[in-house]
Design a protein that fits this description.
The protein has 396 residues and is an alpha/beta fold. It folds into two domains: 23-52 and 297-388, Alpha-Beta Complex (Aspartate Aminotransferase, domain 1), CATH 3.90.1150.10; 62-294, 3-Layer(aba) Sandwich (Aspartate Aminotransferase, domain 2), CATH 3.40.640.10. Helices cover 40% and strands 16% of the residues. The chain has 14 helices and 14 strands. It has helices spanning 7-14, 62-75, 83-87, 90-103, 114-125, 140-149, 161-174, 197-207, 258-267, 269-272, 279-294, 298-315, 335-347, 379-388, and strands spanning 27-29, 34-37, 47-49, 107-111, 131-135, 152-156, 180-185, 210-214, 238-242, 252-256, 327-333, 350-351, 353-355, 365-370. The strands form three sheets. The chain has a seven-stranded mixed beta sheet with strand order 4-10-9-8-7-5-6, with helices on both faces. Strands 1-2-3-12 form a four-stranded mixed beta sheet. A three-stranded antiparallel beta sheet has the order 11-14-13, with helices on one face. Helix 4 runs parallel beside helix 11 (279-294) and helix 5 crosses helix 9 (258-267). The longest helix has 18 residues, at 298-315. The termini are far apart. The structure holds pyridoxal-5'-phosphate. Pyridoxal-5'-phosphate binds at residues 113-115, 118, 139, 141, 185, 189, 214, 216-217, 242, 244, 252.
Length: 396
């Protein structure tokens, strides 16, 4: 009898240790940055949301909701076709034009998700003859893109400009004719750190390499008016952004000069062979951009809060979370311990999620605390109090 082809998958599943198993939980957004119990298996009581990437609390903003509903009325829920067939709507053109103007670039193209935009970005800039030099901690979507491109991958130490320069220099000496692409992020979502992007861009120019920057977590918060850290830098070939985080909506975009934009339009399968971004999401993303433009200091207010939280955690003897943005990892190391801390905080009504391998390297499990602009007054005290009663809390 033929063997069961699912056997090997079953075996692989049985090897996932308990403390690394994932499960889905259901929440409903509640008032004052809370998440309410959704259905069975979620939580028992409202939890303060210290986990999602809705950094500015825009997902529930009345103007985004109104824009999404108006778009459904005028353009329908879905487009029923790809952008290049019948799926382009005025809301797509409006959003692409507004983003291009805001970012001061020649071309913006929308994608249904940041994961897909990242695939498209890498595949547009690298092929099997290329070399990709990437930060060791780039997002999975970028890595999948690199693997799909067939390019040779070299990795530099996280945010280590001199290591990157070493690889660029060696490549330029040994294989001067090979196309090189450098890939990094402007705010690493599990680390909270940002690279010296100006230094990276300058190195790329010096050694003739292309540069792709994923601004998923920085857009709306970092850089002038929330335009991201790549904004205004010469030497950046392509910027990737998502509407699923600070923009409070969903969908994504790539921003570039005219040549790369045209190449994406002509060549990208990830753009061509997918249904256009749903009109309510495109309209909500445009409304979010208008909110950002109306109050360009929203990101700064959040960064100030992030500074206070870092100070508070450090004063409570936790290792100061690196970086300046709203992502504050609390390093615990052990997977089971990170889960224990997550459960402990949940008992106190706080949701922050344990991040474990393979999302982060083995032995570096952490609790990922995420700040939002709309957290109620007293949230930091609540957190510090709950952390202080955890039996494994650091003491000094
Ligand atoms: C750094 C980074 N890039 C890209 C993405 C993908 O964005 P999206 O959620 O729009 O698919 C994410 C989200 O997990 C991310 O953290």
């Amino acid at each position: 009898m033929a063997h069961d082809p699912l056997d090997s998958i079953q075996q692989a599943l049985s090897r996932v240790p308990t403390e690394r198993q994932r499960r889905l939980r259901t929440f409903r957004p509640g008032p004052d940055a809370t998440l309410l119990p959704g259905e069975a298996g979620s939580s028992q009581w409202p939890l303060l949301d210290l986990a999602s990437n809705d950094y500015l609390g825009l997902s529930a903003h009345p103007s985004l909701k109104a824009a999404a509903m108006a778009a459904i009325q005028s353009d329908g829920v879905g487009c029923g076709g790809s952008r290049l067939v019948s799926g382009t709507r005025p809301c797509h053109n409006n959003l692409e034009t507004a983003l291009a103007e805001w970012l001061g670039c020649e071309r913006v193209l929308l994608f249904p998700s940041g994961f897909q935009a990242n695939l498209a970005a890498v595949l547009a800039l690298a092929d099997r003859h290329s070399e990709v030099i990437a930060d060791r901690l780039i997002h999975h979507s970028l890595l999948v893109g690199i693997q799909a491109s067939g390019a040779r991958l070299r990795r530099f130490r996280h945010n280590d400009l001199s290591d990157l320069r070493r690889l660029l220099e060696r490549g330029a000496q040994n294989e001067p004719g090979r196309r090189r692409l450098v890939v990094s992020e402007s705010l690493f979502s599990m680390e909270g750190t940002s690279p010296d992007l100006a230094g990276i861009a300058a190195a790329c120019q010096e050694f003739g390499a292309l540069l792709l920057v994923d601004e998923a977590h920085a857009l709306g918060l970092l850089g002038p008016g929330g335009r991201g850290l790549a904004w205004g830098l010469a030497g950046v070939s392509l910027v990737s952004g998502t509407f699923g985080k600070a923009f409070g909506a969903g969908g994504a975009f790539l921003a570039s000069d005219g040549v790369v934009g045209q190449w994406l339009l002509q060549d990208s399968g990830a753009f061509r062979y997918t249904t256009a971004l749903a009109p309510p999401l495109a309209a909500a993303a445009l409304a979010a951009l208008e909110q950002l433009q109306a109050d360009a200091d929203q990101g700064i207010a959040l960064l100030r809060r992030a500074q206070r939280w870092r100070d508070g955690l450090e004063a409570a003897h936790w290792r100061r979370p690196p970086g300046e943005g709203p992502v504050l990892p609390l390093h615990v190391g052990d997977d089971a311990l990170a889960l224990d801390l997550q459960r402990h905080l949940e008992q106190a009504g706080l949701l922050a999620v344990a991040i474990r391998p393979p999302t982060v390297p083995a032995g570096t499990a952490r609790l990922r605390l995420v700040l939002r602009r709309d957290l109620p007054h007293g949230s930091l005290d609540r957190l510090l109090h709950a952390l202080a009663t955890w039996p494994h809390a650091p003491s000094r």
